[in-house]
Amino acid sequence: MLWESPHPHLDIPELLTTWQWVFETPEYSPGLYTSRSNLGSYINAATKERLDFADVKEKATHLSTALIKQYGLQPGDTVSMFSTNTIWYPVAMWATVRAGGRVNGASPAYNADEMAYALKTASTKFLFTLPSSLDVALAAADVAGLARGSVFLLEGQRDGFTSIHDLIRVGSELVADPSWQIPSHLTNKNVCGYLNFSSGTTGLPKAVMLSHHNLIAQCHQLKQLQLVSPGQRYKILAVMPLFHITGVVRFCHYPVFMNGDCIMLPSFSMDSMLKTIVEHEIEELILVPPIVIRLVRDPIVDKYLPELQRIVKRWSSGSAPTAPEIIQQLHKKFPNTGFRQGYGATESTACISCHPPTHFDYRYAATAGMLCANTIAKVIDMDDPTKELGPGQTGEICAKGPQIAMGYLNNPTSTAETFKDGFLHTGDVGHIDEEGLLHIEDRIKEMIKVKGQQVPPAELEDLLLGHELVEDCAVLGVPDMYAGERPKAYVVLRAEVQPTEEVGLLLLRFVKAKKVPYKRIDEVEFTAG
Q: Which domain of life is it from (predicted)?
């Protein structure tokens, strides 16, 4: 059985690059349909530095001109970003796509070996980083064979290195060529503009090839379901890193498409995040489960609680499922808000599904929402992949749509395993109900087999996370001669709780009271956070 999106079909531009889409096309480009005083912007939450989208267009044009004419950047070349969140990150990103290059984001937490692997895998020609990451970047560049003269600074100064501001000044004195265009024999579906790393369903990180069409389509899909209060500008807080697919879509591209403000946190703390939400009156937050957990448990939230309750209208979570018990606590703390989740992966340019406005109610929060526009899904039997399952039947989720990636760079084997007949095989176990709501249960490779029956670790983790003594946990399968495997919990207790046998027995009884016998945890091991 195939499920189709319930939302109206969208016409997605097929001949535009992402640059042309939001900077050169009157229908979509804020700089062409509104006044300068009404333009949205990227804002540094800490320093208040602001670049409106006219600034971004001008500076990115100068930067791309310098990279092309002084450094030889060619269409198809990869420019990597190794940086925490900064408003200059999207300037370098837009400069790259304007020139027809490929943008690659790398985690600022990478060590030199990990970064060298990323540079080699992405075939990086130029690297932008920060002074604080420069030593790691240079060590990685040496291993990858990238010349030090091709390493630039997004912010700050360091003797002997060129900054983005130096490059912009150089470019401002040169004559800019027109922006790169999609070749006449291709569409934007065939041109890779972005390389984002993902482990996929198995193996080492792979460079996911995202087309210009993928990014444009995802933004159109999200806008179709977007609510903005009358008289308000769209605002988003960039809490998650920009190299992450959510950062690429939601914090770099979507704000320009929406002519909104993206407020970026250079570094994360609960206090700075909460203060920024209140200061900028941000109505909808896109967070990850660990931050949601802190929202309901961290005492610092009480300092801002009345203002947060007044301002925030919706909480949104992605990257991983949020435990139902945590969602219930969030609802209790913020009773007048809504909740939505997005489900997807780097290979789907973020969202395959999300909650439409009709389903922002907390009673739908444990689901992954409905398929985005222009998206088709199927659920296949895990023992017989040729068998498509029906409503309520559990199997592997597969999806097809304009947001599904092109494949993995220089990795035909993994591409063939993951992308079959146009469908992304997600590696996620779940089902779709009669209403068309997705329910994600776990990852195929993480399922625990107890006497031949499948036990999703996430189901037990969600249960334990709801216990007042538990700060964090993981459930794994351990070998058992009789059952094949048994679930074992590794638990981080709240700071004030001592790890004792009595506490362990209490948690075992807690799970036993709520789960059928084959899903019960046989052992608890306490571990440091």
A: Eukaryota
